[in-house]
Design a protein that fits this description.
Elements (H helix, E strand, L loop, with lengths): L2 H4 L1 E5 L16 H15 L3 E7 L8 E3 L4 E6 L16 H14 L6 E5 H15 L3 E4 L4 H4 L10 H14 L2 E4 L2 H11 L5 E3 L14 H8 L6 E6 L8 H10 L8 E6 L9 H13 L6 E5 L6 H7 L2 E4 L8 H8 L4 E4 L4 H4 L6 E4 L4 H13 L1 H18 L2 H21 L1
Parallel strand pairs: 1-2, 1-5, 2-4, 5-6, 6-7, 7-8, 9-10, 9-12, 10-11, 12-13, 13-14
Antiparallel strand pairs: 3-4
This protein binds uridine-5'-diphosphate.
Length: 416
Amino acid sequence: MNDRATRAIALISVHGDPAVEIGREEAGGQNVYVRQVGEALARQGWHVDMFTRASSSQQPKIVEHGDRCRTVRLTAGPEKFIPRQDIFDYGAQFVNSFLEFQTREKLNYFLIHTNYWISGWVGLQLRQQLAIPQIHTYHSLGAVKYQTETEIPKIGATRLKIERDCLERADCIIATSPQEKEHMRSLVSQLGNIEVIPCGTDIRRFYTIGQTEGRSHLGIPKNAKVIFYIGRFDRRKGIETLVRAIGKSSWKDDDRLQLIIGGGSRPGESDGLERERIEAIVVELKLEAKTFFPGRISDLELPLYYAAADVCVVPSHYEPFGLVAIESMASGTPVVASNVGGLQYTIVDGETGLLAPAKDVRAFAIAIDRLLNNSKLRDTLGKNARKRVEEKFSWEGVATQLEQLYLKLINQTAFN
Ligand code: UDP
């Protein structure tokens, strides 16, 4: 039997296209996770097809990422950007397109790994029809998200039901942190299998240059004090907390201070409103001269920014994992983060970074000042952070853990 016959898997990410540029519109951690997991598994010998919804007629339908890994864009709804809360309407069409593709290409997958609840539903249908195991990663749990929302969207009840179905019926759920597992048990269901396998990062990509070099590439003065945020412009990312904390920092009026807020789209795209809101707060606090919005940061430039920063801030209201934190840690740059979800797992408070209560402007200001005022502490935490990522959060290590789980489930199915 050839390799494809025994080691072909489908990763399904209906709304998070693994082949697009990260940072714009809704593209973030899920896109990175699917792409990195796919490529790492392909390096370990698996044939990986990553299925997503075609969101533009200009995009190629198949994108190859090396010998054994590709993105396949299926037709499900109009070929244009659709916000994720509206995509579920096209779930059934996605299932049909998947089955048609499989028949047309004469392919057999031995396992499906689904991402986010919409793909989870698609996976439950395919699992039943094809009698193959399904693994699911939530990336975000409605039950956690809706706890802090005043208005639950119309799709909310459907999402909660499907998240519960996934936990109870999929063959295994991957929690990316022990905190996420705890939330699944306390808020979703006591039934179903859960394994904790974290997200990872490419440890060879970061820590290759020092702060001075990073700054010289980016035109940042050597003596600057640089605070860095990178991520989607979404209210739950807590960028407001960061900006207001800078407004309270003892460095606020120092000319050396630079606040860099990276990520986000062009004006007029779906996350533009949050960016405008943040820009207005920057003006309100008179921080315009010190604040920079470089927009989406490319893969090539991202390591330069992390290296150039004194501190990276992850002020999210909630994170099931939080890739930015481990990327910064891999770069040897300490993180000040909210004391929530997966950030409590990746960051050991006082050893590899500092934690502050979510939305607590004063606590963030104190933690940021602590690091800006003490370069020795900054260096120690940065070095410890790098070590922790090397030991626990490399993509290769993550892919090995996933591989073991896949093999176990495939074998169980074969002997049933
Ligand atoms: N990212 C990027 N460029 C940008 C904005 C974000 O490469 O301009 C990447 C970032 O480096 C990280 C991911 O997008 O890998 C965001 O993942 P995270 O888990 O922090 O947040 P999520 O988007 O899942 O909420």
